[in-house]
């Protein structure tokens, strides 16, 4: 899996970085593993910010991980109730609001199902229906009780912030950049990209949309400034059993990995939690519901790739989306 992530990262950066002529602000970069993925920070014009972002992300990981026994979320899952720190409380409150807004397509209580399918142990397998039937009642974000920092879960329920943590990290990184003298940065947090400002010459950043058939390649790119771009793809962390490929995104209604013709959802928004949460949620919804959600809520753009070879884009991003010359996708602008 790691080499896949690395390949994805390299593909993205291949499109992204093309700055740095004489007289331009100096680049500081950091590359590191965090949140079960690979992160690459390129910050221009400020020497300290990249290091500060790295430290902040590492600190967030030690709060939000479901697998690190010392992490706040892991301790909450084990104990069933806890007084959490203010950052964790903020992430939980924002996550639960997104679960509500997406009518449970995003459901942060999906962790028992994620474990059952082997996505944590890497012992991937299709569970018996009785196991899914037993675990489905535990998957219900509405049963999580949060009163500020006081959080209680129903017996057996467990939280997984994997769908939103990189988005929260992106928002925290933007705060650090806002407090710095940096005017230009491109951060790739394991596929959640912060395009801060524009390139040092003022042009927009070009952020690649991965090719689902070969995620080291890209099918096109969006030209953006000051946006956070998150992608959820069926090709990430998937496994195959008896000729069927199972993705790491679970439909909370059925307990089964989503298989609905969507190959990937890329969300472009001003806010990282929104980008990351909605990339997962719209993937679960399927194309028609995702389009309806956008019409009803707005405030973001998408590129949705479907297995019939279409790249569905919102009108707001249509002019900023460019297909690669060798891409076989047809662009369809959603109404
Ligand atoms: P992302 O790559 O942002 O789409 O997040 C996928 C991760 O979120 C998975 O690896 C799971 O840990 C978790 N997840 C899977 N399905 C869901 C879901 N329906 N709601 C919330 N989290 C999910
Ligand atoms: Mg997500």
Q: In terms of per-residue confidence, which ranges show pLDDT below 50 for 5 or more consecutive residues? A: 1-21
Mean pLDDT: 93
In sequence order, what are the helices and strands, one letter per element? Answer: HEEHHEHHHEEHEEEEEEEEEEHHEEHEE
Overall, the morphology is: globular
Count the DSSP helices: 10
Task: Please give the alpha-carbon distance between the first and last residues.
Answer: 37 Å
CATH superfamily of the largest domain: ApbE-like domains
- Our count of domains comes out at 2
Strand order of the largest sheet: 1-2-6-7-10-15-16-17-19
Please tell me about this protein's structure.
With about 325 residues, the protein is of the alpha+beta class. It has 2 domains: about 25-60 and about 180-335, T-fold (Roll); about 65-150, Orthogonal Bundle (T-fold). About 35% of the residues lie in helices and about 30% in strands. It has 10 helices and 19 strands. It has helices spanning about 1-15, 50-65, 70-80, 85-100, 110-115, 130-135, 165-180, 270-285, 285-295, 315-320; strands at about 25-35, 35-45, 80-85, 145, 150, 185-190, 190-195, 205-210, 215-225, 225-235, 240, 245, 250, 255, 260-270, 300-305, 310-315, 320-325, 330-335. The strands form 5 sheets. It has a 9-stranded mixed β-sheet, sandwiched between helices. A 3-stranded antiparallel β-sheet has the order 3-5-4, with helices on one face. The chain has a 3-stranded antiparallel β-sheet with strand order 8-9-18. The protein starts with a helix and ends with a strand. The relative contact order is 0.14. Magnesium ion binds near residues 230, 277, 279 and 280.
């Amino acid at each position: 899996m790691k080499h896949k992530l690395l390949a994805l990262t390299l593909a993205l950066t291949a499109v992204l970085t093309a700055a740095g002529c004489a007289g331009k602000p100096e680049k500081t970069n950091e590359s590191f593993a965090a949140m079960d993925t690979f992160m690459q920070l390129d910050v221009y014009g400020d020497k300290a910010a990249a290091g500060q972002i790295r430290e902040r992300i590492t600190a967030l990981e030690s709060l939000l991980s479901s697998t690190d026994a010392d992490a706040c979320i892991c301790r909450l899952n084990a104990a069933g109730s806890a007084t959490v720190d203010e950052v964790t409380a903020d992430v939980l409150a924002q996550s639960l609001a997104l679960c509500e807004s997406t009518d449970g397509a995003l459901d942060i209580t999906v962790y028992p199902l994620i474990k059952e399918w082997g996505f944590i142990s890497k012992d991937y397998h299709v569970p018996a229906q009785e196991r899914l039937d037993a675990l489905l009642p535990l998957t219900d974000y509405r049963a999580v009780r949060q009163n500020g920092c006081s959080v209680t879960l129903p017996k057996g329920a467990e939280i997984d912030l994997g769908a939103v943590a990189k988005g929260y990290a992106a928002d925290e990184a933007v705060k650090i950049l806002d407090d710095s003298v940096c005017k230009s940065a491109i951060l790739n947090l394991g596929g959640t990209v912060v395009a801060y400002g524009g390139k040092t010459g003022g042009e927009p950043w070009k952020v690649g949309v991965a090719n689902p058939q070969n995620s080291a390649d890209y099918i096109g790119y969006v030209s953006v400034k000051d946006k956070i771009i998150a992608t959820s793809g069926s090709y990430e962390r998937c496994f195959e059993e008896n000729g069927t490929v199972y993705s790491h995104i679970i439909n909370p209604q059925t307990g089964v990995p989503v298989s609905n013709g969507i190959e990937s959802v890329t969300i472009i928004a001003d806010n990282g939690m929104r980008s990351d949460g909605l990339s997962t949620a719209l993937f679960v919804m399927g194309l028609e519901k995702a389009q309806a959600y956008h019409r009803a809520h707005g405030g973001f753009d998408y590129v949705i790739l479907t297995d019939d070879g279409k790249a569905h884009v919102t009108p707001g991003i249509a002019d900023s989306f460019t297909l690669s010359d060798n891409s076989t996708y047809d662009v369809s602008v959603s109404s």
